[in-house]
Design brief:
It comes from Halodesulfovibrio marinisediminis DSM 17456. This protein is α/β, with parallel strands linked by helices. The chain is 36% helix and 21% strand. The chain has one domain: Flavodoxin domain (Rossmann fold, 3-Layer(aba) Sandwich). A hairpin with a 5-residue loop joins strand 4 and strand 5.
């Protein structure tokens, strides 16, 4: 199963359209795809209470992330999409990533550090960012802000998509280059989780 997550405030916007493209490729290949539009989930940001160290999942809140945790654990593939807001991911995507903190375990033995309970399971991911700006520099740290935490959690990021100069709702569908790159990334993800 592939979990597709997008963090745009706009229904029918470009993030939504990109997610639908991933879903279509996945379902055509016979791979189940679950779409999560973060605007439809109400959840709190991580507050660092550390209850998840003992409980192995966030038990501080019973909210929208509680509904997504089983999907995250089940999925071998993840698509994470964010529009660019102020050179970074949206608050919804940031909050989603922060709430994945509950999958880390602290190891007190040498060497000391963190390990992820999602790691070592062949999990793959694709990240995508959509910007109205015309240059990669104007995307700021959007792709890094998604890639780095996912890699730390144990996902192999098999493709990164940067779509520039796109603002009008659904405008991404008119960008043949972006559509082709999305379809290629979707096929790569489906192939990597199916093998």
């Amino acid at each position: 199963m592939i979990l597709g997550v997008e963090g745009s405030p706009r229904r029918g916007g470009n993030s939504d359209a990109m997610l639908k493209m991933f879903s279509a490729v996945s379902e055509q290949a016979g791979t189940p795809f679950y779409k999560a539009h973060l605007r439809d989930y109400r959840y709190e940001p991580c507050v660092g209470c550390e209850r998840c160290r003992k409980d192995k999942i966030c038990t501080k809140f019973n909210d929208g992330m509680t509904l997504l945790y089983p999907r995250i654990q089940e999925a071998k593939g993840l698509v994470l999409i964010s529009p660019v807001h102020n050179y970074n991911v949206t608050a919804w995507v940031k909050g989603f990533i922060d709430r994945l903190y509950c999958f880390y375990d602290f190891t007190n033995s040498r060497p000391r550090g963190w390990s992820s309970r999602l790691a070592g399971q062949g999990r793959k991911a694709v990240i995508g960012a959509i910007a109205e700006q015309e240059s990669m520099a104007d995307m700021g740290m959007t792709l890094d802000a998604m890639r780095m935490p996912l890699e730390a959690l144990g996902f192999e990021v098999v493709a990164e998509l940067a779509v520039l100069n796109t603002f009008d709702a659904g405008g991404i569908k008119k960008n043949s280059d972006a559509v082709a790159r999305i379809e290629d990334a979707a096929k790569k993800l489906v192939g990597s989780v199916s093998s």
